[in-house]
Amino acid sequence: MNLSESKDFLVSSASLKDVRTFSRDVFNKINLPQDQKDELVLAIAEAAQNIVKHGYKGVEETSDRMEIKISLEDSNLEIGFYDKGKAVVPGNVQHRKLDDIKPGGLGTYFIKQIMDNAVFKKDQKGWVNHLVLTKKI
Q1: Cα–Cα distance between 101 and 84 in angstroms, integer?
Q2: Residues 136, 77: contact at Cβ < 8 Å?
Q3: CA dihedral 45, 47, 53, 56 (to 10 degrees)
Q4: What span, in angstroms and rounded, lies between the C-alpha atoms of 122 and 110?
Q5: In what order do the strands lie in the sheet with 3-10?
Q6: What is the rounded CA–CA span in Å between residue 108 and residue 113?
Q7: Residue 82, domain extent
Q8: Angstrom distance (rounded) from CA 106 to CA 53
Q9: How confident is the prediction along the chain (137 residues), in pLDDT tens digits per residue?
Q10: The pTM is what?
Q11: How many domains, in total, are found in the chain?
Q12: Would you say 90 and 100 are in contact if contact means Cβ atoms under 8 Å apart?
């Protein structure tokens, strides 16, 4: 099965529910076990939350948008995130220590556990950041 769907979202905490809904709707078109769909939605939600929290420092008053594109070709799943927030320095992206018990800070850990790869690419379409998550399904 091949598919490609994308949608743009206002960069805000309020949009994160819409991000999860969009992701679930796309994954419901793919014959995957429910637990794998749930994990993929979690990875997407965590990445989108990181864009809002870190790329825009949690600013709620922005008209900026981010785009999420989910593509499946053969068994290769690719999820692209595009935004115009603060430029990401890939070497600075890391999760907190697992033994440091407190809320938050594990989004990148979950993403790395769920996905096969997470890389920042240079985008040619005027976006500042282009994160690509991939997984063989």
Answers
A1: 32
A2: yes
A3: -120
A4: 24
A5: 3-10, 65-73, 76-83, 129-136, 117-120
A6: 9
A7: 3-136
A8: 13
A9: 899 999 999 998 889 999 999 999 999 999 899 999 999 999 999 999 988 887 887 566 678 899 999 999 999 999 999 999 877 655 655 654 656 555 555 668 889 999 999 988 876 678 888 999 999 99
A10: 0.85
A11: 1
A12: no
Which tokens belong to 126? 């005027």
- Measured CA to CA, the distance from residue 68 to residue 107 in angstroms comes to 17
CB neighbours of 50 closer than 8 A, spacing ≥ 6? 107, 108
3-state secondary structure (DSSP) of residue 131: strand
* Cα angle, residue 15 at apex, residues 19 and 121 outer, rounded to 5°: 60
Q: 41, 23 in Cβ contact below 8 A?
A: yes
Q: What is the CATH number of the domain that holds 89?
A: 3.30.565.10
Is 35 strand, coil or helix? helix
Q: How far is CA 99 from CA 10, 31, 57, 82, 102, in A?
A: 34, 36, 25, 32, 9
